Amino acid sequence: MAGGVCLERLSMESRISSGKLFARPVCGFCVIVLLVFLAACAGKQPVSPKPVEKGLPAPEIVEAPGSSGRGDNYRTAASYSLTQEGYRLLQKGNYDDAIRVLERAVGINPADGPGYFYLAEAWLKKENFRLSARFNELARLYLREHPYWSRCAEAQKKRIEQAMHKSAGS
Amino acid sequence: MKIFPKPKKLVLCAGLVLLLVLVLSFGYCWYLSGRIESRFSGRRWQIPSTIYSDTTLLFAGKRVRRSALHEKLRKLGYQEKSGRPEKKGEYHFAGNRLAIFLKDLQLPDKERPGFPAVLEIAGGRIQSIRRGGTGKPLPLVELGPEILMQFFGKKRELRHVVSLEEVPDYLADAVVAAEDRRFYKHYGVDPAAILRAAYTNLRHLSIRQGGSTLTQQLAKNYFLTPERTFRRKFHELFITLTIEAMYSKDEILEIYLNEIYLGQKGSAAIHGMGKAAYFYFGKEVKDLTLSESAVLAGIIRGPNLLSPYTHPQDCRQRRDQVLRAMHEEGMISRAQLERALEAPIRTVGFEKYSRRAPYFLDYVSQQLAELYSEDILASMGFSIYTTLDTGVQAAAEQALENGLARLEKEIPGLRRKDPGKKLQGAVVVMQPRTGNILAMVGGRDYAESQFNRLTQARRQPGSCFKPIVTAVLLDKFTPADPLSNQKTTYMIGDRPWTPENFGEMPYKKLSVRDMLRLSCNRAAVDMVVRGGPARVAERVKAFDFSTPMRPYPSIALGASEVIPLELARAYCTFAADGVAPFPLSVRDVVDEAGTVLVQRHMEINDVISPGKAFLVTSMLQSVVRNGTARALVERGLTFPLAGKTGTTNEYRDTWFIGYTPDFLALVWVGFDNGDPVQTTGAGAALPIFADLLKSIPGYISGRSFTVPPDVVKKEVCPLSGELAVFGCPDAYSEYFLKDNQPRKKCHIHGRGGVFRKAFDGIKNIFR
After folding, report:
1. CA B632, CA B108: separation in Å to the nearest integer?
2. Which of B602, B664, B712 to mutate to test the interface with A (most CBs of A within 10 A)?
3. SS3 of B424, please?
4. Are B355 and B362 a contacting pair, CB within 8 Å?
5. Residue B605 bridge partners (DSSP)
């Protein structure tokens, strides 16, 4: 038995009234250890994955898959500021200017996953589904190790496919 | 007898003559008014279109050279100051700190007012960027584009049109005080001014004053030829009167301020106050000071004799005259006069108009010619924004020039007396992800030959084609698969063909990786023959070469000609996860009003999977690490870099193409007439590539290539190419496509005793 717990057959009431339970520190310690052990075995509570937002996800710095995180953070930071600007322009509906800024972002940092994501979104709004799909592929490639963004990119892929089918149908 | 006609008849005749003159004059003025109206209501001036380079992004961590930064700022019209910069367009270097007051930035997609910034530069890198005053950290700052070229028509005039509202009052006043004090009072011709000028000039026995009004000057410059004849004077008078009748004084002044000739920039003439303000003082006309306005007004009389660049003393004297005239006319106060008289005349300097990046500009011009005629480009004042990076362009030109000179020095047989037959070269630099062309050098000397060897030449790529055929066969071959290096004769139709290697290669078999690493011809041909030449030729079409690919085994050795720019684009595919970008040179075309007429974005196409692109890149990294391009490592280029050397039969073409995730450069060296270069790609083209990379450190991130999800790593046997087992000598890690990976254990070393197999089994549990 874990912790060498030893349980004596005494009623709880008599133990408490007589103080014998607490008069036996070894057993008390064993009970505490057992409780701690059981709590540890229960494990972490499962955390529900962050749901994909209805609107565009806000940009955040995402390191390239397999990146050591050393030596090229400055490019990531520089491209992040441009990606932020691209995101703001997208929100305003200024798609051409957003595309221009985002192209600069991925030019500085070719591993800018959110940059490709927003480019896919901008081209989707401009109804160029071919380019949107290309950028979505790159977004899924560079965001695959980031669970939230990966889900966003998969959801975007579905939206692009739906839009393509709708456009083909009409 | 009547000797004299009667007075009544005289008067009548005179009256009739006068009436006739008036009618004719009126008719002539009416005719002129039509011409003047059509001239002024239509496009008033030919404004040449301007081609700009790309902007420059500076961000913390970027590697920079201080001298290059100085040069860049100078070319952008920034002035170095001894102290803290206080106005837009000034900068100051103090130790590791660069304080700069950024100019306003106006681009098709953004406008950003200028502001002060401080950059800390140490160890060859920008350590931090902060906003001046607040100290707020900034992730990046953007410097404006440089002018590369202007499309001149027959008249080589530089002009920046401004409205009267933009012109400061004291500039307009200065012009009136200098040239026509009674401008607002006369009706085009000022007899008083003519008489006064005549008197002054006679008194001093020299031309001190002109009698022409602003309107007369306008009529002369705008409509008439410069000869001095009575007939021309007659026309000038009528045109002057007609202009005065048709337009208000303010309108006339506005046209004058934009028309007047104000100096020379090389062979191009500066017209108008808008352009003159930039040319002399590096600022917009609305930012001119009183002193500067008086300078510009003063030089109207003789821009080449009163230029502050060539005749500073005379310029100052004339400026002072104008300022005193303004004070006499009550336009400025005594205090203003005294302050302005003491102000020094500080000009910004200028570079004479010259054509930079000429091959690139030709390439851009060809694209523009498909959209607009020459006349439109020479007159409509378009702004054309390109992808060219002037720093990279200068580095590429220098590297090529130095590299070719070095080759001619080392190999005397390459020297040619005839400049038209000299050793040639070409360099193109691109961003592989976006397709942006950062630099284009289409030949050794544009003045000697305008033939662009990157876009117009067709040359055999030689071994540089091996990665492309490898890429299209990666569903059949793995990097570890053995290929035969045995001397083999193939029948091409009914003719035998025996490929040979460059140099000694004693191995009977080579892996696909080693085939690329050592550029083994026999092994490459073996791969293509086993894969099927027709299949290879068909699949290579995905790379979009416009030249035909012959479906023969020699396709492995790059026997089919390619256009070098297309070859560079094909290599972008390997650098950019299997996606090929469209080479981009023109970004935007904007008209004078700022309306975007053409906007080009990144265009990408799937060519191969990310996994295949990565495998090729990984193998080309071996070429650099310990293959035919290992000299790059010896030259200190130790960051992740992939590349391929190429040499064609009889050394007619030598190539090197190298890339990182964010940078790609192609170098070609050869003779236009196909004479041998007498060395390989590693000897001719590779050193030029190395020099180029070392001179632009800010463009290399040092980032590794990302391993995509469809690639796995396995231990393999070098002899069988199969999964390594205990006993395989020199087993090594190799990358494979998930869909095409070795499944079998090494059949050469796999047989063995029970213990051996048991050991393998245990080993596999923990793999």
Report:
1. 40
2. B602
3. strand
4. no
5. B580
A138 at B interface, C-beta within 8 A: yes
* Separation between Cα atoms, residue B505 and residue B509, nearest integer Å: 10
The conformation of residue A64, written as its DSSP 8-state character, comes to: P
Residue pairs between chains A and B whose CB atoms are closer than 8 Å: 96
Mutate to test the interface with A, among B63, B604, B663, B664 (most CBs of A within 10 A): B604
Q: Which residues of chain B make contact with A110, given a CB cutoff of 8 A? A: 432-433, 576, 661-662, 703
Tell me the pLDDT tens digit for each residue of B437-480. Answer: 999 999 999 988 999 999 999 999 999 999 999 999 999 999 99
Q: Is A126 exposed, middle or buried (0-12, 13-18, 19+ CB in 10 A)?
A: middle
B661: number of CA atoms within 13 Å, CB side? Answer: 22
Neighbours of B16 (CB within 10 A): 10
**Measuring CA to CA, how many Å separate B60 from each of A79, A108, B74?**
11, 12, 22
**By the CB < 8 Å criterion, does A101 face chain B?**
yes
Contact (Cβ atoms closer than 8 angstroms) between residue B527 and residue B477: yes
The CA distances from residue B431 to B22, B364, B434, B700, in Å, are 72, 17, 6, 11
* pLDDT above 60 for A15: no
* Cβ neighbours of B662 in A, within 8 Å: 107-110
Contact B273, B162 (CB under 8 A): yes
Give the whole-number percent of chain B exceeding pLDDT 70.
92
Return phi, psi of residue A5, to 5°.
-70, 140
Report whether pLDDT(B151) > 80.
Answer: no
C-alpha B64/C-alpha B122 separation (Å) is: 9
* A92 and chain B in contact, CB less than 8 A: no
For chain B, percent of residues with pLDDT exceeding 90:
61
* pTM as predicted: 0.80
* Per-residue pLDDT tens over the stretch B547-560: 999 999 999 999 99
DSSP code at position B449 = -
Cα gap B665→B431, rounded to integer Å? 9
Place of tokens 């995905």: B542
Q: Which residue of A has its CA nearest to B704?
A: A67
Torsion of CA B523, B527, B530, B533, to 10 degrees: -120
Other beta carbons less than 10 A from residue A166's beta carbon: 10
Contact B708 A141 (CB under 8 A): yes
Band of pLDDT at residue A1, cut at 50, 70 and 90: very low
Which amino acid, residue A54?
K
Is the distance from CB of B243 to CB of B33 less than 8 angstroms?
no
Exposure string (b/e) for B708-743, b if CB count within 10 Å is 16 or more?
Answer: bebbeebbbbbbbbbbbbebbeebeebbbbeebbbe
Label the pairing between strands B125-131 and B140-143: unpaired
Query: What mean pLDDT comes out for the span B222-229?
Result: 62
Single-letter code of the amino acid located at B291 = S
Residue identified by tokens 């701690």 is A36
CA neighbor of B274 nearest in space, from B361, B367, B351, B167: B167
- Cα→Cα distances B419→B446, B633, B669, Å: 11, 35, 16
DSSP B486: S
CA distance B268 to A86: 40
ipTM over 0.85: no
Q: How many CB atoms lie within 10 A of CB B487?
A: 10
Looking at the complex, does the CB of residue B612 fall below 8 Å from at least one CB of chain A? no
Cβ–Cβ contact A81 with B under 8 A: yes
Tokens 């004090």 label which residue?
Answer: B181
Q: Does residue B291 contact residue B307 with C-beta atoms inside 8 Å?
A: no
pLDDT tens, B701-728? 888 999 999 999 999 998 888 999 988 8
Do B100 and B73 contact (CB within 8 A), yes or no?
A: yes
